[in-house]
Each structure stands twice: as structure tokens, then as C-alpha cells.
Amino acid sequence: MEIIAEYLKQERSQEWREELRKSMKSKDRTTKVRVHMPEEDPIKRAKSHIEVNRGLTMEIAVEEAQRCLDCPDPTCMQGCPVSINIPKFIKYVEKQDFAMAARTLKETNALPAVCGRVCPQEVQCEASCFYTLKLKKIPVAIGHLERFVADWERNSGNMYVPEVAPSNGIKVAIIGSGPSGLAVAGDLIKLGYSVTVFEALHEPGGVLKYGIPEFRLPNEIVDVEINNLKKMGVEFINNFIVGKTATIDDLKEEGFEAFFAGSGAGLPNFMNIPGENANGIMSSNEYLTRVNLMNAAHDDYDTPVFLGKKVAVIGGGNTAMDSVRTAKRLGADKAMIIYRRTLDEMPARAEEIKHAQEEGIEFLNLNSPIEYFADKNGRVNKMRLQKMELGEPDSSGRRRPVPIEGSEYELETDLVVVSVGVSPNPLIPASLPGLNVSRWGTIIVDDKEMQSSIPELFAGGDIVRGGATVILAMGDGRNAAAGIHRYLQNINKK
Amino acid sequence: MKDLTTKYLGLNLKNPIVVGSCSLTSSLSEIKKLEKNGAAAVVLKSIFEEEILMDAESQLREAKENSFIYDKYSETLDYIDFHVKEERLNDYIQLIKQAKKEVLIPIIASINCVSSAEWTSFAKRIEEAGADALELNVSLNPTDLEIRDFEQTIKIIIQKVLAQVKIPVSVKINNSFTHMARTILDLSQTGIAGLVLFNRAYAPDIDINTFEAVQGRSFSSPESYTETMRWIALLSDKVKCSLAASSGIHSSEAIIKQILAGADAVQVVSALYEHSTEHINVLLDGIEKWMEEKGFSSLEQFKGKASSKNLSNPAVFERIQFMKHFSGIN
Amino acid sequence: MNRIVAVENLSESVVKLEIEAPRIAQKRKAGHFVIVKLGLKGERIPLTISSADTEKGTITLIIQKVGVTSHKIAVLNIGDEVTDVVGPLGLATHIEKIGTVLCAGGGVGTAPLLPIVEAMHKAGNRVITVLAARSKDLIILEKEMRAFSDEVIIMTDDGSLGKQGLVTHGMEEVILREKVDKAITIGPAIMMKFSSMLTKKYNIPTEASLNAIMVDGTGMCGACRVTVGGSTKFVCVDGPEFNAHEVNFDELLSRLGGFKDEEYKAYQTYLEGLKKETV
Questions:
Q1: The pLDDT value given to residue A126
Q2: Does B88 contact C at CB distance below 8 Å?
Q3: Residue B27: inside a domain
Q4: What domain range is B17 assigned to?
Q5: Which of A30, B59, C142, C259 could serve as A304's disulfide partner, Cβ 3.0–4.6 Å?
Q6: Which residues in chain A have their CB less than 8 angstroms from residue C231's CB?
């Protein structure tokens, strides 16, 4: 920790930073008003897949960067799971040296354009910003600035490819190309390892591709970041399921010395209520994969998808919001969130809920489905709901929904998306008998280096967490990369 | 060999001994042992909605202490109570299926729910899993001031379940109702296949040294059969469904008495804990021996022989308080 | 990657393709399947591996032209590449020596049945195979089946080959004649439903290998869910084989028809497009 503090101090005392700090009085900085992210018009955007957040202009970004006080003790960094040097990149924005700002992001973050879009900064860096903690003011828009820098660099046509150490020839296998796997790959390739990422699907990116919709994170942006990793030397192998196409033992024989399992939480939960297997009822994983990865809504793609006019999405998380907003964009007249508790208890990000409301999503809170009905062709046409009331808080602090006796009623629907969470994909654990897993089926790892009970196997992301955010997965990836590095250095010394 | 067969809930039982819902009936290996030792049927350990809720709570607490698992954005944790329920139900269904595959005696499932919505969904799944019958363990919380009418609440639960399943449904009730005879008769007419009298009430106690509440006696006492027997004797001619006697069934004599009163079957639990599973053999031997002595060749010959209709002095069972006249009848 | 090394037309609508996929060839067992995707805009469909050659590093897939994707794959030539092939997926068939095994294959379902017949035969079972189809042209793999079966009975709806009648007629004939210890049925869902009803009547343990709509094939989407014995299972990870007597075939049939209209329309448009091209 001291080394990091020392390093930050050094960086901060560079002349250009000192000058910048002097260029404006703190009071002038703190009296500036935080920028607003320009958003596409709700009515227009709900009919297309264009990104909702339009990004900051250069002028606005520089204005916002001026709010940052370049604190001697940048508490914001403690809130960042991938430890971005936040004041440094923001000060480069203020200096209008956007290329250097981009380099700064890439020192620790393999996917800045992704994080700038999907991280819940309000509970991470921005929650630990000096403005939030001490001034009780609205924090610096760190997330918006991160996105601005990443987009600026991409649009400049001159992407910086971070330098990599000379190859040490040690092979590391990364299972899954979602956010955690990409983070590991980015760090290990810089250290000189020979990194191969195995992806089960036909395209790399994991949940960033199949899960998060275009209007929040265009696939093209994910591809740019992946291409950057390829340029650094990371090898991607698609259509390869570790545990099926080859086992970890097979890969060991092929020379891989360490493994990172970032295979995600790839098993959707259903509610198992009567009628749930009717046509037109599916998991959010299926719905979003068909639309986002398979482009099912485009006529020239072969994959079909059920379209609905009255779409019910069950659940209150970010995936539920993604699903219901997708349904609206695919032409639903009524796109509804059906949630057992109230808006206050919803796990979705406040921003996503706000965007959904603006787009005309209906919220049927305190409602829970208990049965589905289908027409003669087996297609869902109706659901029975039960109204709930909130009881005592449960151990998570959320008030527990309790059914109201006799409150059942029926609602017409022609498409239902079930978004009540995912379970860890059992493929890896099932193929490794010696692996310790938790009662939830997640791989148990030590919390610093992400090492599992099998020494050469590290893990992170949803296979360890059971269903969390992109940035936590990336943080795991960075920790695991450090763990793998230490592990490999140790065994290769012997 | 005597003919001990009896019909209970429309099921043909080889003898009247049904092992009641308890931990012994919660695993396949134990169920196999019970069958081997002569049990005619088993009621599986109840699946308790309340227990599921508590398990979900403990998982949430565990998750909260685990920095990896706990995430405020997790849709899974938001629905953890639902998923825990699903897991428990699934285990239960697997037990039913395994038992149906590996033993020949009827398997009666048992459920205890808090919310009426769950009664029906559980019942449906249990029927699909292949259970031969379903026992509703309707021990409503007597301290629940929200419930105004226990009888009505039970009837609603029965109606809802019967509308969902075709397998025979029995109801196990407590021994405390305002008007026991009326309640038993009314319930027997709801379309259920049988009534189980009675559920053993949880008996808390107080430790006089620590001043703390503690669990009281957890097994029934051999004397407690009399209360059940009384209601069976009084009502077995009048009810529209099977009757099973539960509580205090520790000896062959107790079983014989219940059958004489008109029970179609008995449910044994405590005696098996106090002795062992093999005790079923002892009970069966005792019944056969008595039948031999009395010259009965089948259970049907004496079932209900001491029910209120067949008794010369039925008033014995109707009295509430001791009077000199009756206390001297022996 | 995934180059086609051999093509054989088994009938007018059924094609056998041998594809280079050395890793899959190495790992596959009877019962396994792959997910195949053709072209950038193609859809992902599951296909059972019919056989494999570990030395050549190839797997054999048998495809019937029933829709756009299967048609596109079925008209590929030697040297063409299948864009994406991933597997082997699913649980392998449980193979053991049990006595007499009755294997029933309907239409193109004969293809996934072949490796099971082969494995059951090699495990020392007496294997009786019933192959059924609408007519002579649709009976496939007869020769290969004969190599691993003690007896092959052929049933056609029109009597153009073997006996006239349904698959269940052929099966019942065997069941009435001798003791059958296990039955395996693979084919259209409706055929499996009726053969399962038949073996249930005679109390013969029966496995059915289910075909279902899938996207990823690894348990991620749940498109392939099916009710077995009252609980929901995923065909891709819990199957594809299940106790046939517990499968809710009506639900399976309904789910298979989920995209029927869209698929039909897409296929007609595609076929018209083909016609225009040839004109």
C-alpha cells in the first residue's frame, strides 16, 4: 500500500499537475455545477437501438474535469475495483491531453469504454469522491469522463496499444471471455505471459455481448476493446468449452500452467410456477442473447425471437430493465416490469429505472406471477398475478413481500421474460472433482488472489459471485492476474 | 396369518400401522427400513413453508457476510427466498420419486404452509411427483390474532387444494377447537379422504433454574391415546371420510382400541423413537395375538365394534365432567 | 476450421456430412451433440453426432432439410467450411450390459440412434433395431444398423420397404415375442410419445433422446426446457436422454412448434430465393 501511496504522490507532484492545480482556485472548482449526460429523446430512443447516453462533448468534459480538486489523498480510487488512477486521468482531461488520459485508464483497465458505460459509479468511485464525502456535494462525474476519454481515443482512429513485456513463454488459459476473463488477459499479457482465452460461444465478449443491449453498450465498442487485446497478443479461441471440448487436464498436457475460470453464472433461474414452460415465456438470458448476440430482430439474420405486444418482465434487477426496454424497442405496446416489492427495494441501478420510466415502461410493483395460461397453440396469452404487501425487512434489509390473500387477478400478456437471477454454470465445477464450491455452487476462492482449492485454478466474476456487476468481475480479474503472476513466479523459481 | 388389511384414504393397506410424519420418514434408507419392518404406509416428513423462509433468511445472512456473494444489484439474492423454496421442494419431490421407485407401500406426502398461495402450488407439484396421497398439516398458529375463524381458514385451504389435485387428501388437525365434534364432522364433509386426529402440539416448558423457556416433552405419552380414541368412537359412524388415530399409539392395545373405536388406521411416531423401527413388528404381533385370543380373523370384524353406535353405554364418551354415577361404571 | 471432407446424400432430403473437428471427435461419446452455426448471420442449431473418426479427426452429422439453417448446411459441398461447431455437448448415453435392448429410430432420428446401437452392441447386449419412416426413401443407415444389430425390423407407413405400419407395430411385435430389458427411442417427438406409451404398457424401462430448440447449448438460455417427472429440465445439460415414461411429450411438441410459423415463412422465402437464383 505504501508503495502505491508513494507512487501517487510522485505522480501528483509532477510539474504539469502542480501547474494545473494552481491555474484555478479550489473555490472556483467547487462552485461549478456537475454536467448532465446528454440523453437521446425518450420517445425517439424507445423505437430504436441507439445508445441512450450520448456522451460528453470535449468542452463539457474539460469543464467537468476542472471540478476535480486533484486531492492529495484520492479517496475515489478506493472505490474503484480496478484501481484506476482517477485524478491523473481527469487532470489529463483538464489539460486536454486526451491521449494521455486514455493511456492512464489503460494502465489498470482493459475495458475503459465498457466501464464508462455500465459501471455503477454512484456506489463506487463517485461515492468515495471528496465532493460526496466531505463537501456533501454532487461528486465529479468520473464515469462520464472515463467514457468520454475512451470514446475520444476510439474516434481518434489512433488507439494506444499498451506495451507488453517480452514473452516469457508461460501459457495461461482463461476460460470465458466476459469482463473478468478480459481483465485477466489484459494484465497477464502485459506481464509477458502467453494468454489464450477460450470462449464457448461463437464470439468473444460474454455478457458484454449477449447480455447488455446495444442501447447501453454497443457490441462494436466491445469488439474494439477485444481487438485491442488481440493487438497486445492475446489469443482468442471461440467455440471451445473447457470441460467438454477439452478438460483442464488436457490443457495442462498441452502446456498450460495456470487457469482462470471466468465462465459466468450461466444458468438462468425460473420460478417453476404452473404454465411457465409455455411458448413465449423465456429467461432474460435467452431473450437478450437472441436479440443482442444473434441479432434476431433483424430480418436478414436467421435466428427467430418471439415478439410481443404486451410484454411482462418478471424481476427488478438490471437484467430485467435491459429486457423490458428491449421489448419496448421491439415494438411492444405495453412493456411491464412485474416486481414483488416496490421501487425502493429494486436491485436495478437508479439510472436504469429512470431511463425505463422515461421510455414508458409500466411498473407493476407489489405483484408476483403465480400461474401462466396458454392458447391452443401453446403460446402464453394470460397470467395470473398475486398482489403483495411488504412485511418485515429480511436479512438483506429489504422488506419481504407477503402475498395478499384473495388478491389474485388475471392479466393479458403475449410475452414473458423471467429475470429472477442466475445460478453459476456447473460445467467447470462438475468437471473438477477436487474443487471446493459454496452452497450456492460458486467456486470458493481466497479473496485476495482469487485462488481456488486447486492451486493452478483461479476464478472470478459470476462463477465466484453468483451474479454481480461487470466492474466487480473485472476487479476479480485484476486480482486474479496478480495472483496468477505470483503463483507462476513461485513455481517457476523452484 | 391374520388379515390385517384396511382401507385408508381409499388406499389398500396391508395393516393399520402408518408411520406418521417425522424425521424417520425424511430419508429413503429409513423409509426402506420402515417398510421392511412392516409399516403399511408412511407419511413423509412435512415440508414446512416456515422452515423454508427461515432457511432463506439464514442464506441471506450468510451471503451478506460473504463479500463475494453479496451484491445489491444481484437479481438472484433478490429472489433467494424463492430459489430456496424451489430447491427444498425439489428435494422433497426427489424423495417422493425415489420412494415410489424403491418401496411398495403407499407414500403419503405432507405439507405445512403459512400462506394459502403456497398450499396449492406445493400440492400440485407433490401430486405430479407421484405421491399416493397428501396429508395437510394444518396446525395454524393459535397465537395468530389475524385469523378470526380457524375452521373457516382450514376449509378454504382444503377447497383450494382439492381444486388442484386428484390424489386423496387428508387433513391433520390440532385437538383444540371450539366445538370439536362439529369441526370434525364439517371437515369430513369437505370432500377430503381422511382426517388425522390429532397433531401433537408443541409443548414449551419453563426451566425454574434459568427462568428461560425450553422445549418440553417432545414425544407423546402412552396415555394420550384416550383423547383421540374418544372422538373417534363418538364420530366414526358419522364422518364421511377415513379416520386415522395419531398421538399416544405406543402399544398393540392402543392400536386395538383405536380400531375398536372405528379408526381405519393409526399413525405411529414416538414409540418408534423410544424403541426402534423394529417395534412395528412387536405391535403387529400383539394385534395378531389378541385377534387369535378373541377369535377374529380379520381387522374388519372388529373395526368400530366399540364405536358410539355399537356401544351399550355411548354416553361415556359424551360426558364432559366426572359424575359419581359415571366414574363408578367400571 | 470445420472443413467438410465428405458428403453423402442418404435420401432426397437427408444428407450425411463428415466434418473436420479433431477435438470433438476425440471427446465425443454416444448421445453427445454439437451446436452448429453457418455464416455470420446464421442461427445456432443442435445436431447429434452420428459417428466420429478419431484418426481422421472428423465427426459425422446427419441433417434433414426442414428449415433454412438445416437446408443451408445440407447443401454444403466438400471443402466448404461450417463456420461454427461447438461440442461435444449433453450427457453421454449410459451404456451397460443389460440383456436385450430394443432400439427404435424414426426418420432422421435414426442418425443419433446409430452410435447408441453400436455402443449397446459392443457392450454385449442383444440389440434389436426397429427403423421406421413414411416411405422407403426416408429409411436411412440400414446397412450400418445391421452391422451392430442382432436384428433389424423396417417399418414404412406405405409399405414400400419392410413391413407396412408404424414404429410401434414393429416394437410390439418384438415385445410380445421376447423379453426386452430396455428400450431406446429417438425420432420425431410424436413418434417417441407413442413408442413410450407402448413400452410403459409393458413396463419396459425406456430412454428417449429429445430434440429441443436451443441457442447456446450449455445451459445458459433455457430455451430447451422440458418437464420430466414433474420438474423442469434443460435438454442441453440434463439430457438429451431422459426416462421416456416421465417426459411430458405434449409440452415438448408444443415447445418445438414455438417458431413454426416464423420458420415456415422464412423457409418458403428462402426456397423462393433459391429458385430465382437458378432461373
A1: 92
A2: no
A3: yes
A4: 6-327
A5: C259
A6: 272
Q: Under the phi-then-psi rule, with left for phi > 0, alpha for psi from -120 to 50, and beta for the rest, what region is B278?
A: alpha
| Rg, chain A, Cα only | 23
Query: Which residue from B69, B82, B117 is facing A466, i.e. has the nearest CB?
Result: B69
Give me the residue label for grid cell 417453476: A272
With an 8 Å Cβ cutoff, are C42 and A302 in contact? yes
Kindly state the cell numbers that stand for C97: 450390459
Give A80-111 pLDDT, tens digit per residue: 888 899 999 999 999 999 999 999 998 888 88
ipTM value of the model? 0.92
Chain B residues with CB-CB distance to C231 below 8 A: 90, 93
Q: Does B69 touch chain A (CB under 8 A)?
A: yes
A200, A286, A300 member nearest C86 (Cβ): A200
pLDDT at site B330: 36
CATH number at residue B173: 3.20.20.70
A279 and C44 within 8 Å at the Cβ level: the answer is no
Domain assignment present for residue B93? The answer is yes
Give domain status of residue B1, yes or no: no
The distance of A274 to chain C (nearest Cα, Å) reads: 10
Partnered with residue C84 across adjacent β-strands are C37
Among partner residues B63, B75, B117, which is closest to A420 by beta-carbon distance?
A: B75
The partner residue sitting opposite A419, judged by closest CB among B59, B66, B75, is: B75
Tens digits of per-residue pLDDT, A220-250?
Answer: 999 999 999 999 999 999 999 999 999 999 9
Q: Is C16 on the interface with A (CB under 8 A)?
A: no
Cell of A417: 421474460
Residues of A in contact with C223 (CB under 8 A): 282, 286
Q: How far apart, in whole angstroms, are the C-alpha atoms of residue B201 and residue B187?
A: 20
> CA nearest A460 in B: which residue?
B68
* Adjacent-strand bridge partners of A369: A385
Contact between residue B197 and residue B245 where contact means Cβ atoms under 8 Å apart: yes
**CA diameter of chain C:** 58
Cβ pair C225:A270 closer than 8 A: yes
Question: How many other CB atoms sit within 10 Å of the CB of residue B78?
Answer: 27
What ranges in A95-206 are assigned the alpha helix state H? Answer: 98-108, 112-118, 130, 142-155, 179-190
Q: Look at chain B and report how many structural domains it folds into.
A: 1
- A250-258 contacts, C-beta under 8 A, 24 or more apart: A251/A173, A252/A456, A254/A171, A255/A171, A256/A171, A256/A172, A256/A173, A256/A196, A257/A170, A257/A171, A257/A172, A257/A456, A257/A488, A257/A491, A258/A170, A258/A172, A258/A173, A258/A456, A258/A457, A258/A458, A258/A484, A258/A487, A258/A488
Give pLDDT, residue B327: 44
Instruction: Give the range among B113-122, B202-211, B228-237 with minimum mean pLDDT.
Output: B113-122
Q: Would you call B149 an interface residue with chain A, using a CB distance cutoff of 8 Å?
A: no
A326: closest CA among A210, A432, A433, A240? A210
Q: How far is CA A190 from CA A36, A193, A236, A257, in A?
A: 36, 7, 16, 17
In angstroms, the CA A375 to CA A385 distance is 18
pTM: 0.85
pLDDT at A120: 83
Residue C245 touches partner A, C-beta closer than 8 Å: no
Q: Would you say residue C206 has pLDDT above 60?
A: yes
Give residue B319's region: left, alpha or beta (phi > 0; psi -120 to 50).
beta
Residue B322 has a pLDDT of: 55
Does some domain include residue B182?
A: yes
Predicted confidence at residue A81, as pLDDT, reads 84
Rg of chain C (C-alpha set): 18
